[in-house]
Design brief:
Order of helices and strands: HHHHHHHHHHHHHHH
Number of strands: 0
Structural class: mainly alpha
Shape: globular
Radius of gyration: 20 Å
Number of helices: 15
Largest sheet: none
Helix content: over 70%
Amino acid sequence: MDNLESIQHMKQFSSWLYIALIIIIALPLTRMGLPWEANAPIALLVGLIFAMVFENPHPKFNKKCSKYLLQAAVVGLGFGMNLIESLKSGAEGMAFSVVSVLGVMIVGVLVGYGLHINRKTTYLISSGTAICGGSAIAAIGPVLKASEKEMAVSLGVIFILNSIALFIFPPLGRWLEMSQEQFGTWAAIAIHDTSSVVGAGEAFGETALQTATLIKLTRALWIIPLAFVTMLVFREKGSKISIPWFIFLFVLAMVVNTYCSLPQQLTSVLVLLARRAMVVTLFMIGASLSLSTIRSVGSRPLVLAVLLWAVIGFSSLAVVLWTIP
């Protein structure tokens, strides 16, 4: 009985701590007169530590909320961006996105074959690296008829690298003395998930955030043609395609902000709420990681993901430094 009571007390404590951390991380503390507030890397780190110490008390809520909160945050960021200026700053990155998506998919399939990795796992990891991490895997998985294990392994390995990227990219960008446009373009192409791309861009600067968000969401549209190609390659009929509709809402928000002369106070509030929502999203993503997920990855899928990440990371860095002032 004592053990059962201890377990119940621990669950209650972890549940209250989970809620308290979300509230603290969500609050714009600097605007409330306090000297510090959680940013994207800190939120992710806190989530990771929480996941390692406690079992997530609300896994279903965490999964659904992080998904929709990310989408709402991305749309909200659109109200702080000018469509014309954003298109100009992101033009170079969009052109390279086309080449990099095709290149990563081809290299990924070939390397996966050479490493004797499951065909569907290889395809999922390649899709996540080429386009937008977990979102691409979640969209392509049902079309591919992937099993739960194949989905878990692919999402796990992408998530691990995604978490690392959020911590190392901003310092690397500063060490290389990259401009805001250079870093935003590089982050959008070389980092997997939209959440970490936005988090890294925000950590580097305002222009980097806008450039990274625009290029990453343009890149995410590749989910749609890739889903159709997947149906043809794997010959699955009747599969549903998950279209990322929030990307179109993000573009609509930019159009409204550019041409409708919204009050500055309104757009400032919307962007502030979007940024705090993004930080909370990263905490929830960190809190969703478990030791079982890490163990399920295995060495060969991790090798594939790291190789693909190195290919896209170094090649995009070279192109960005060469072509963007």
